[in-house]
């Protein structure tokens, strides 16, 4: 980005400055989009994959809404244990402000107890656990292929904090900017009724304005 600004606009800035911008605005926009009122469907898809952080593997978890493909939550952890699965699922429930009726996962043994403790209501919850048919599993597989394409270019992360920041920034891009053929060319945010497709500038501007007038701006964003 530093080279692009110098070549295209004649503006010289350091890579450190660009890095600080990214940290600032990913955090700002991330806080803002969590306030937008969207309703998830009754079925969620949960999965996990490995990413390289400082030369070692860490676990990247992803929670996807079945109907809208909206990425509800991400989580970075060192292990795939029940405690990690619970933390991850709890994030999803807190963000969506509801619990699902069905959860689709792979065969990871940490899921059953974690789902029962974090997602179950009074009514029984349906847990569809792998190995699964291609029709049930391909939504998460497609999502992680997109993630892997991005992380492969980066060649891994220099810190756990960097991996978390990537996951948060990627979720914003995936939900609000990436078109999906399965959604008729719309973004997951559009499919969820969170307004038109948005750019980073749109979201940064909205986040700044929402701090000035929270209620008015959030109502505007949902139209």
Main traits of this protein?
9 helices, IS_Transposase, alpha/beta, transposition, 223 residues, Nucleotidyltransferase, domain 5, DNA-binding, 5 strands
Protein model, in words:
The chain has a 5-stranded mixed sheet with strand order 3-2-1-4-5, sandwiched between helices. The protein has a domain at 41-159: 2-Layer Sandwich (Nucleotidyltransferase, domain 5), CATH 3.30.420.10. The relative contact order is 0.15. It has helices at residues 2-9, 15-33, 82-96, 111-118, 134-154, 160-176, 188-191, 200-212, 214-221, and strands at residues 43-53, 56-65, 71-77, 102-105, 126-129. It has 9 helices and 5 strands; from the N terminus they run ααβββαβαβααααα. Helix content is 51%, strand content 16%. With 223 residues, the protein is of the alpha/beta class. The chain is globular, with a radius of gyration of 18 Å. The longest helix has 21 residues, at 134-154. The model has no long low-confidence stretch (mean pLDDT 85). A hairpin with a 2-residue loop joins strand 1 and strand 2. The two termini are 33 Å apart.
């Amino acid at each position: 980005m530093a080279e692009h600004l110098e070549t295209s606009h004649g503006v010289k800035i350091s890579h450190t400055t660009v890095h600080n911008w990214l940290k600032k605005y990913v955090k700002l926009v991330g806080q803002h989009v969590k306030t937008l009122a969207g309703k998830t469907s009754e079925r969620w898809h949960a999965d996990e994959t490995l990413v390289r952080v400082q030369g070692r593997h860490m676990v990247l978890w992803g929670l996807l809404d079945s109907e809208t493909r909206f990425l509800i939550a991400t989580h970075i952890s060192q292990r795939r244990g029940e405690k990690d699965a619970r933390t991850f699922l709890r994030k999803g429930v807190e963000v969506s402000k509801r619990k699902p009726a069905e959860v689709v996962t792979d065969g990871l043994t940490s899921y059953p107890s974690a789902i029962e403790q974090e997602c179950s209501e009074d009514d029984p919850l349906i847990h569809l656990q792998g190995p699964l048919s291609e029709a049930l599993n391909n939504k998460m597989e497609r999502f992680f292929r997109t993630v892997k394409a991005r992380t492969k270019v980066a060649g891994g992360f220099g810190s756990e904090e960097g991996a978390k920041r990537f996951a948060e920034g990627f979720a914003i891009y995936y939900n609000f900017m990436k078109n999906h053929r399965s959604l008729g060319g719309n973004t997951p945010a559009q499919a969820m009724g969170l307004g038109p497709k948005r750019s980073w500038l749109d979201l940064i501007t909205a986040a700044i304005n929402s701090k000035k007038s929270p209620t008015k701006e959030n109502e505007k964003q949902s139209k």
